Amino acid sequence: MSTVMITGSSSGYGLETARHFLAQGWKVIATMRTPRADILPKSEALRVIALDVTCADSIAAALEAAGPVDVLVNNAGIGVVGAFEATPMAHVRKVFETNTFGVMAMTQAVIPQMRIRRTGVIINVTSSVTLAPMPLAAAYTASKQAIEGFTGSLAHELACFGVRAKLVEPGYAPTTRFAQNTEVKVEDLIPPTYAGFASPIFEGFAQPALTTKETDVATAVWRAANDTSGQLRFPAGADAEALAQAV
Prior knowledge:
By secondary structure, the protein is of the alpha/beta class. The chain has helices at residues 12-23, 56-66, 89-117, 138-159, 195-206, 214-226, 238-246; strands at 3-6, 27-32, 46-50, 71-74, 120-125, 163-170, 233-236.
């Protein structure tokens, strides 16, 4: 039975991905900053472990507790929407600590065991903002674009050890909290000088033509975990798929 380790499993994509892999008969290690087993189905194949991807000691402890991992899903992330001019640099750094450096740290920590076994898959969840520019998301886009380049390069250098690196690119999901795990409110990042520009954009967000469901992302992660074709990118959701075909 294969084992998947998923970061950011307390809600959204991570939670649904954990449910999906459990349903497929995998062993699932669901990690979150504050462990909650009650949000997932009861199963002997499930373990819930505390993990803060921005803390080296937490990463080491989680991987030691997890044991051998066949698939790592780097899903934990922070969103930020607003004018870049109004976004505190302290918050930009916080976004990068989780979305970029947290992914890199988890990846670097798990590579040795996969390299030695000459098998394994690392799946990094980014966003459809990497497929086409989206206004009011400059810092967030930068944090995710960095992981796109990182993963593409990593896929080449790990291939000789039988280890695969993949990208899952979710589209826009209005039912999820895009700016979750952050104390900065959207309204604080839209100064009056940007109000006229931002208003129609937020109206568009409220009534998107195409959206992404959490199940779309879980399915894309599942496909990436089992893909042996060499495919790097897996758009998730109707809007992300449309963007991927357009670029």
